[in-house]
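Structure ticket #2291
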Amino acid sequence: MTLLTETLNLDAAPPAQHAPTAYDEAVHQLSHTVQQLVLAALARARHLEPAAPPPLDGTPLSAREREVLQRIAAGDSNKAIARALDLSPHTVKRHVANILDKLDLRSRGQAAAWWLTRQARPQGH
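Resolution: structure written out below.
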């Protein structure tokens, strides 16, 4: 048992009464924190210039895949990406699958995080 599990008694079922408990407060706080982190990352991503993304040294992605990845990091859906880049939704879906495969990632969220961490680095590092 971890300290967090012991402290919050997370192994036990939540109490039946509706009065706020330490469990409820911890879940609420964690949800709020995660939500704030995601919103902050999306806000930063939306301020990226919509110009063609810079080449990422050593990255196996094509220029179009980098454009799609930039839009994913900005929080766009496949449908929105398709409209913005004048592609079919199926083509965007294939680009997303190729991006995840080439970067050995499992989700759009991981892809967005991958993009954002590389955008934060100075060029050449």
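Closing remark: Residues 20 and 65 are 47 Å apart (CA to CA).
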